[in-house]
Amino acid sequence: MTEHSPLKKELSVGDVSARSGLPISTIHFYEAKGLITSERNKGNHRRYARGVLRKLAVIKVAQKTGIPLEEIRTAMDRLSSDKTVTAKDWKDLADAWKEDLDERINQLIRLRDIMGSCIGCGCLSVTDCDLLNPDDTVQKNGPGAYFLNPDVKLKQEK
Questions:
Q1: What is the 3-state secondary structure (H, E, C) of 80-129?
Q2: CB-based contacts of 41: which residues, under 8 Å, 6+ apart?
Q3: DSSP code for 37
Q4: Within-domain flag for 129
Q5: 97 and 66, same structural domain?
Q6: Residue 84 shares a structural domain with residue 46
Q7: 46 and 124, same structural domain?
Q8: Is there a single domain that holds both residue 54 and residue 27?
Q9: In terms of CB atoms within 10 Å, which end of the chain has fewer, N or C?
């Protein structure tokens, strides 16, 4: 097997970049975030198991669906760092993300359906805004200016 054979057991970061189509900086970023791992050879160069290519594909698909990197990292932690992602692994990941993706889809549908009624309102009535504050859920934070994202916890709630 030659040094540039596509069947090498370990890949350099350049090989991974060429095979995945991702810039080297992205591969390093994913590694720094704990999404993928590498080993160092005697020359202190990164070497990636071939399975990293499928992991990178999973990461990119998950990102395109809007799954945050932290959730992707948590999912990647459940997979062996040296094995290729299998069809069963992918199904398990997809099943775990399905509920979140369904909710995102429903939010987008609601946004699409009510966006036309927002034109001209100017968001002057936060309590009546079906887009930013459905059912006046922000009121639980009390009076005053608060983030309209109910997932953001106020400092006093921590």
A1: CCCCCCCHHHHHHHHHHHHHHHHHHHHHHHHHHHHHHHHCCCCCCCHHHC
A2: 10, 47
A3: -
A4: yes
A5: yes
A6: yes
A7: no
A8: yes
A9: C
Range of the domain at 158: 120-158
Phi-psi region of 135 (alpha: psi -120 to 50; beta: other; left: phi over 0): left
Instruction: Please provide the average confidence, as pLDDT, over all residues in the chain.
Output: 79
- Residue 27: inside a domain, yes or no? yes
| pLDDT tens digit at each of 158 positions of the chain | 445 545 668 899 999 999 999 999 999 999 999 999 999 999 989 999 988 999 999 999 999 988 999 989 888 888 766 677 888 888 888 888 898 889 889 888 888 877 766 655 555 555 566 666 666 766 777 665 555 555 555 444 44
In a domain? residue 28: yes
Number of domains in the chain: 2
| pTM (two decimals) | 0.65
CA 69 – CA 29 distance, rounded (Å): 11
Is residue 49 a part of any domain in this protein? yes
Distance CA 5, CA 107 (A): 47
Amino acid at 14: G
